[in-house]
């Protein structure tokens, strides 16, 4: 099959082995796959991953032992758990001690013609959601998780640091739930997307940042983001950290203690909540697509995804 392989460098192959399905798994033919910030970090060495990257996808099930799945159009959760360890038994499957993670850890991902995932990870899509909106289901679920983790109460205001893919989706998710949002970023054209949806927007470094805020979502994709968040949150406020980078953080955490700030790491989220937002039209992510590429132009696609003015770059399979 066609696949985009990372083995120290990115290269396209047209002879990569098709994935084998284990017990309770489905084979999915990929229609659309999206490049995210984690993929860009993987090619810098994040997680030491080798194989086919990619974890944001829409596809159609072509092989499954579960009734009702074959032929269905699906998106999928990325953490594949054993179901047997102590964490799985406590309901913490996404933290399974022997988990694989689609396109990130121990399992080939979505930048290929096919992928395999456990049946339990798959979500059937309503017909009214287009493929190019549905490819945002995984990052929108992560944005919904930030909403849950922030614990914003009525009348409170949240600031979101970072106007990239995840920062924008998080702003749109908070706005869909009626929260007052200030989005702080560096690109006026990106900020404008959230501004049209009702967010207050501020160009980083300019006056008018406001605050201190009840909650700050750190989605800069930069090792400096947490220090910025600490400077903006009120005493006894909350910081939700979404950034993962290959390099190390270096900062003083004294203010975390002095101001009694709660810091929460936040990763994957509720797919059902994300799919509902897409189906109801409360979040429209398609304007965030900056470019579309065939898989054979993988290097060019990754280069475009790394541009400062790019939002979502997607692969389209014919």
Written description of the protein model:
The chain has helices at residues 37-42, 86-89, 131-134, 137-150, 165-176, 188-197, 225-232, 254-258, 271-279, 298-305; strands spanning 3-6, 10-13, 25-35, 56-63, 73-76, 79-80, 100-102, 106-107, 114-118, 122-124, 157-161, 180-185, 200-203, 213-218, 233-241, 262-265, 289-293, 312-316. By secondary structure, the chain is of the alpha/beta class. The protein folds into two domains: 3-136 and 285-316, Quinone Oxidoreductase, Chain A, domain 1 (Alpha-Beta Complex); 142-265, Rossmann fold, CATH 3.40.50. Strand 11 (157-161), helix 5 and strand 12 (180-185) form a beta-alpha-beta unit. Helix 4 packs across helix 9 and helix 5 packs parallel to helix 6. The longest helix is centred in the middle third of the chain and has 14 residues, at 137-150. The chain is globular, with a radius of gyration of 19 Å. The two termini are 13 Å apart. The mean pLDDT is 93.
How are the elements arranged and paired?
Elements: E1 3-6, E2 10-13, E3 25-35, H1 37-42, E4 56-63, E5 73-76, E6 79-80, H2 86-89, E7 100-102, E8 106-107, E9 114-118, E10 122-124, H3 131-134, H4 137-150, E11 157-161, H5 165-176, E12 180-185, H6 188-197, E13 200-203, E14 213-218, H7 225-232, E15 233-241, H8 254-258, E16 262-265, H9 271-279, E17 289-293, H10 298-305, E18 312-316
Parallel strand pairs: 7-8, 11-12, 11-14, 12-13, 14-15, 15-16, 17-18
Antiparallel strand pairs: 1-2, 3-4, 3-9, 3-18, 4-5, 5-10, 6-7
